[in-house]
Write a structure and sequence with these properties.
This protein is an alpha/beta fold and about 170 residues long. The protein is built from five helices and nine strands. It has one domain (about 5-15, about 20-165): Metallo-dependent phosphatases (Purple Acid Phosphatase, chain A, domain 2).
Length: about 170
């Protein structure tokens, strides 16, 4: 696969006794399509946790831009998104991405990004008594020229560090 991608890793950090059911709605590659978002809105409303793996705000093929990014972020917030990870298309917004992130009504993740826009490294949610750790990793194929000083940390090592720090003692 020659394209960049981002993904979310969700780990249960504490398991309550007995069974439970948690519904996670997970989107990716929405590419600023308010139409696609409207189609899935009923499904998102049923979820306990709503996440996006990136490429939500920008679409180079349809030549969307900053205005569409702000609109999409706002609409995702209205539909109850809990978090998203940056995708390579968000990174193409360049330094203006900082403005979109600041205006986004839910957290934006990039667990293994160093020197880029201000984002959260991870999130911990309490979902029906279950402690859920959400990590968001970026892959290596990004528009580096738009982000001097950006460093992508190894995702496996980064996940191991976060898990060691966040996992409850056994």
């Amino acid at each position: 696969m020659g394209r960049a991608f981002a993904f979310l890793l969700i780990l249960a950090l504490s398991l309550p006794a007995g069974g439970w059911e948690v519904t996670v709605a997970f989107t990716n590659d929405l590419h600023a399509s308010l139409e696609r978002l409207a189609e899935i809105a009923p499904l998102l409303a049923q979820a306990d946790l709503v996440l996006d793996a990136g490429d939500a705000w920008e679409d180079l093929y349809r030549l969307t831009g900053l205005r569409e990014a702000f609109t999409m972020a706002k609409r995702m917030g209205e539909l109850g998104y809990d978090a998203m990870v940056l995708g390579n298309h968000e990174m193409y917004l360049g330094p203006a991405l900082r403005e979109v992130i600041a205006a986004t009504p839910f957290p934006v993740l990039a667990t293994n990004l160093k020197g880029g826009p201000a984002v959260q490294k991870f999130l911990v949610f309490d979902v029906k008594g279950l402690r859920v750790l959400v990590l968001g990793f970026l892959w290596k194929e990004y528009p580096w020229s738009l982000w001097p000083g950006l460093k992508m940390l190894d995702p496996i090592q980064t996940a191991q560090r976060v898990l060691a720090a966040e996992a409850p003692p056994h």
